[in-house]
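Troubleshooting: if your tokenizer reports a length mismatch, compare your output against this known-good record of 206 residues.
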Amino acid sequence: MELQIINEQGKPTAKVAASDHAFGRDFNEALVHQLVVAYQANARIGSRAQKDRGAVNHSTKKPWRQKGTGRARAGMTSSPLWRGGGKIFPNSPDENFSHKVNRKMYRAGMASILSQLAREDRIRVVDEFKVDAPKTKMLAQKVKALGFDEVLVLTDEVDQNLLLSSRNLTNVQVMSVRNANPLALVRSARVLLTKSAVAKLEELLK
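Known-good structure output:
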């Protein structure tokens, strides 16, 4: 597999050979779907909670006498059958939403996504990607000069200037190769890699 190299003006200059193991695999839709679902599930936090019948605020007084009223017997107002009563199976903050994905499956899924992006000509490579100062305007101009409206930039290491410059740009996402995730790759219209990032990806996806 060969990836297109572009210069700072977005013009194609040459091509770089990339490993078929990382950029030349068949697309496995089921595996990619599993990876994306697992990534979103593992990002969830236990922030919801409901009260059971022992936790709701209520009186322990019997609402009415046991017999003779013609109504169903009732012991206390915390019953789940009553309005304002507790939940039978309440949601708990301790609920575990995580999905397990084997390392081999994760690497194969990431390689599958990258291979599909390469086949669709949505990956470009640059020698390096840096800005001289932490300025949002500077990074926006650099991205525009490369010809991108929306792009995910993957570098070997993200320096502080690049990180600070990208925080206020909704159409530019910058991350290191180690932080690359299936959701970001699937959602990205275009992906920009540095040469060192290509080598790092090939190493990580072996």
